[in-house]
Amino acid sequence: MRLESFLLMRHEILLTVALLIILIAELSTENKKKISNLSVILFLGVTVIGFLPVPEGLLFGEMYRTSHLIVLMKNILNIGTLILFFQSAEWIKQTEYKNKVSEFYMLILSTLIGMNFMISSGHFIMFYIGLELATIPIAALAAYDRLKNISAEAGIKLILSSALSTGIMLYGISMLYGTVGSLYFSDMAGANLNTPLQTLAFIFFFAGMGFKISLVPFHLWTADVYEGAPINVSSYLSVISKGAAVFTLTIILYTVFYSIMPMWKNLLYVVAILTMTVGNLFALRQQNLKRFLAFSSVAQAGFILLGIIDGSGLGMASVVYFVLIYIFTNLGAFGVVSAISVASGKEHIDDYNGLYKTNPKLSLLLMLALFSLAGIPPVAGFFGKFFLFTAAAHSGYFWLVFIAVINATISLYYYLLVVKAMFINKNENPIAYFKSAFTTKVGLLLCVFGIFAIGLLSPVYEFIRMFSNIL
Amino acid sequence: MIDFSFTILIPLLPLLLFFVLGLTSGKMKPVLSGYIGTLGMFATAAMSYFVAFQYFFNRPAGAEAFEKIVPFNTVWLNLTDKLHIDLGVLLDPISVMMLVVITTVSLMVHLYSMGYMKGETGYSRFYAFLSLFSFSMLGLVLAPNIFQMYICWELVGVSSYLLISFYYEKPAAVSAGKKAFIVTRFADLGFLIGILILSYISGTFDFVSMTDPQGALITQGTPLTFMGLSALTWALALIFVGGAGKSAMFPLHIWLPDAMEGPTPVSALIHAATMVVAGVYLVARLFPLYYFGAPDVLTIVAYTGGFTSLFAAIIACVQTDIKRVLAFSTMSQIGYMMLALGVSGYGENHGLGFTASMFHLFTHAMFKALLFLGAGAIIHAVHTNNMNEMGGLRKYLPITHITFLIACLTISGIPPFSGFFSKDEILAAAFENNKILFFVEWAVAGITAFYMFRLYFNVFWGKNTNYKHTPHESPLTMTLPLMILAFASMVSELIPFSKLVTSDGLVLHIQTEWIIVIPSVLVGATGIVLAWLFYKKESAIPDKLVTTFATTYKWSFNKFYMDELYLFITKKIIFKRISQPIAWFDRNVVDASMNGIAWVTNKMSDSIKGLQSGQLQKYGYVFISGVIILAFTFVYVWFK
Q1: Which of A338, B251, B402, B554 has the most other CB atoms within 10 Å of its CB?
Q2: B593 contacts in A (CB within 8 Å)?
């Protein structure tokens, strides 16, 4: 094995280096601002370097693999995390509890390393380590405001639910190992997994992934954790963590479980309908914006399944494209909520009444993000949903598309409720005008750019489509 | 042949100007935005002239036909593997010619407006809208596929709407804007359906492959038929409906006279020279398809054009608002162009009508813009639109007078002005193909001369009205465009159209047919003489004629009650008999069932809220039950 071959895992190595630098910096200074700036700049570098071309290949006897598609996915996650860093810079400096700023960055970076390994894995043990690395630090992050009961509660709920789901998942993986005799993805893909026991094992595995993506009925932790955790952590959970899990699930379904595709297509069919519908029905009645966005993200996960269900390169492309758009869109929504929460501490929909009068720019941005979530043209969310639905229709799931369209209509209702609060409802004491910090502005402007540009620039989709034939 | 890919800048520059002027409107000094807009348009026009020169006169030696060049094209949306929507630029003789027409007239109007709109509120907004319009129109003519054309077509409609209702505090302007938008939009529905059918049967939006005479669509046609007519015929007929709406062909013309509520430079740019010929351009663009695929539709085009030109000319004789006279004269002249396309053949030496139509489009743009800008200068001087309140203006407005006279002579087809040549070619083309239409158009030529000189004598000669303020000549920014356009009207016959703009790109050989030239000049002269007799001095003849033909006069004055007919159909029939029952159905059935669904959704949401209790043990319970139920169901169903 030659030294250059480590270049294949450039993303992971860079992240680890960045993490170590932050750790060292932490030892030398107490200044929150310095560490925060250093982290953002380091990560900016990591993101940019991530775009340099890298060859495809395998490492460690096939335990680790990488391809252009996988690199693209990692870059997408990096972009999302970068925006999140911009958005949270202001919040992290302000936090009243004497937490160490570096903790936030280091925990996020370690989960990102875990996700990268998860996506790149070629072996179930590798995958499992990645998954754990991507989950456990998030539980710590959810309890970041540890003096607040609700934050601590979120952390403990996440770690316990996650323990349950990984337990079941490991159980499933062990059964697969028992029947196939190997944990390598390539061996699994070669074997015919079409026995009742293996189906059972697959569903156990799927439940674990469903937990990460918050699919119904494995989603119940979502709302409580999102509500309790600091907003930027919820934002990270709903966007990056979910995106990474979606990527991994899609890759594994399309390669490892290719032989039982008809079975998992039916499973996805059922779960997609459940997820969209239940997510929407709960989102309808939320008053707290964080819970509201939590259920909205559950419903969005249901839509993503419509792309995965296609089972071909078209489906893969539509999923990657949607996640890219979803990152910009949801970060835009969370970013505004976070900015307002930092400035005024308010998180209820009713508090937003009359926001347009005092903070027109933020209101417009939140409106754009919600329109994009609802899928109204010409913002990017429309194109994302369009390609997801196209993928499902491509495989002949017309009823599923029909149900999805009905659900999209219901979702429009509750997204518009927030828009109505901001623009139409009158309020004696609206949230006062405040100026956002420079970093927050950059983070939000990047979202605006993404919301408009990714939908209208067709080369983006074409580019993703070019790499997405992995079968 | 040079690289033409820079032509994409021609539409993009006005778009940039629109954003710049629109975003800085209210912050920048108004005068400055006028300068920026005009300079930008000047650059666009310079580029267009350069393109035209390179395209027409700098060809590789030995090149026979003018090629269709697509110097810039990018795929925007992939619908299927074959069908995709592109954005790009197509250069061929007609699009290059249109570039010159649009940028010339637009530049003149930009310049003219610096004087005409001086001090108006919303001066920068006006220039921003002008730029938007120029962008849309240039995008329309350069479109390499019918979908881009449709997008720009609608943008043209929007900018026309914005400019007609520019004085948005004036109710008449607002309703005129709405009327124009709704009527053309209604016609565009036909256009859209036509595009969908056409793309369905041809599998492409691309003009070049669609109109290729050796292409699959023309040689093989389509087996699809509907009500005895082929799908291609339907598609082309529906597309023509869209074109007829924009070009104000009977019976979709009702918006054009009202559109005169907009500022006069706008009328010159949009409602005389550029937007209203979009329909003609559309038919010309698809001409091979019409000719080979649906000759029946081409006949309809010819008769629609012929009828409209006669109908509008008759109405123009009795109108008293000078802008409306010009509006009806525009309809009449566009009727000529449509008719010429309708009677034209394709290729070899049969394409006279096509060339004549494009030639007339060019000359008409020049002289009609001149007439409108002249009318603007008159209105600017005397503050009224009514010609009965004018007279003897030749002493006060010498430059306007001379240029206006040149324009009147041009439109009346008096040699050696350009209108004579283009109209003469149309008459020759009609004479070859359809004698009835030839006689109609011949008569219309006489009527045209009559009403134009009625206008001219009424305004510049005749009774000497006492004006409150002495009228005075307009500033140079306004008279300079008049002079330039007058010059263009006089000399544009020198452009060898039969060599440059032909149906198949090859040279067309034409010879002068005296049998047509002499009668057409005579009939024009007769019209002028009659107008001279009636209107040069105050005379009793017009009033006598009015009383003799009282009914005809009344009908014609009221534009044959077309507006009233539309109102009757929409209000009494559509609104009352159709819309009201639908509204009832909508309120009591559709809305009620939606409310029902919403109620059910809420109830469902209510009933499952217990699931989200906040208790972790319950979550675990649901999680595990979920896994077990899914697992057992799937194992059972799958291995039953």
Answers
A1: A338
A2: none
Across the interface, whether the CB atoms of A410 and B601 are under 8 A apart is answered yes
Q: Are A199 and A278 in contact (CB under 8 A)?
A: no
Q: Give the residue numbers spanning the domain of A259.
A: 3-466
The DSSP element (H or E) to which B172 belongs, if any, is: helix B171-202
Residue B534 to residue A42: CA distance in whole angstroms = 88
The answer to the question of residue A129 being in a domain is yes
Q: How close A182 gets to chain B, by Cα (Å)?
A: 23
> If you average pLDDT over residues B525-551, what whole number do you get?
76
Interface test with A, best of B605, B609, B622, B629 (most A CBs within 10 A): B605
A471 located within any domain: no
A160·B616 Cβ contact <8 A: yes
Average pLDDT, chain B: 83
Domain count, chain A: 1
Nearest to B635 among A199, A224, A271 (CB): A199
Which of residues B273 and A420 earns the better pLDDT score? A420
Over residues A312-316, the mean pLDDT reads 88
Tell if the CB–CB gap between A207 and B620 is shorter than 8 Å: no
Q: Is the pLDDT assigned to residue B547 strictly greater than 60?
A: yes
Closest chain B residue by Cα to residue A291: B612
- Looking at residue A120, what is its pLDDT? 92
Contact A282 B612 (CB under 8 A): yes
Q: Is A209 on the interface with B (CB under 8 A)?
A: no
Q: Which of A196, A203, A458 sits opposite B627 (nearest CB)?
A: A203
In angstroms, rounded to a whole number, what is the distance separating the alpha carbons of residues A64 and A61? 8
pLDDT value for A308? 92
Residue B609 corresponds to which tokens in the numbers above? 């809220």
> Residue A169, Cβ neighbours under 10 Å: how many?
25
Which of B605, B627, B634 faces A199 most closely, judged by CB atoms? B634
Which ipTM was obtained for this model? 0.85
- B321 by DSSP, 3-state: which? strand
Q: How far apart are CA B254 and CA A155, in angstroms?
A: 70
Nearest CA in chain A to B598: A410
**B538 and B465 in contact (C-beta within 8 Å)?**
no
Residue B257: Cβ within 10 Å count: 27
| CA nearest to A220 within chain B | B619
Q: pLDDT at position A37, please?
A: 86
Number of residues written out for chain A: 471
Q: Tell me, yes or no, whether A231 lies in a domain.
A: yes
Cβ contact B11:B142 at 8 Å: yes
Distances (CA, A) of A423 to A287, A289, B94: 17, 16, 49
Question: From the centroid of its chain, how far is CA A5?
Answer: 29
pTM, to two decimals: 0.66
| B602: chain A residues, CB-CB within 8 Å | 284
Residue among B77, B602, B627 whose CB faces A168 most closely: B627
Mean local confidence (pLDDT), A146-165: 89
Side chain identity, residue B86: D
Min CA distance, A168 vs chain B (Å)?
9
> Is B76 in contact with A157 (Cβ distance < 8 A)?
no
> Using CB atoms, which residue from B78, B625, B634 is nearest to A267?
B634
Whether A96 shows a pLDDT value over 70: the answer reads no
The residue behind tokens 């009659």 is: B530
Give pLDDT tens digits for B90-149.
888 888 889 999 999 999 999 888 888 887 778 888 888 889 999 999 999 998 888 889
**Quick check: A97 pLDDT over 60?**
no
Residue-wise pLDDT for A335-372, tens only, equals 999 888 888 888 888 888 888 888 888 899 999 999 99
* Segment holding A216, helix H or strand E: none
Confidence (pLDDT) at A248:
94
Q: How far is B234 from chain A (nearest CA, A)?
A: 30
Buried b (16+ CB within 10 A) or exposed e, B622-638: bbeebbeebbeebbeee
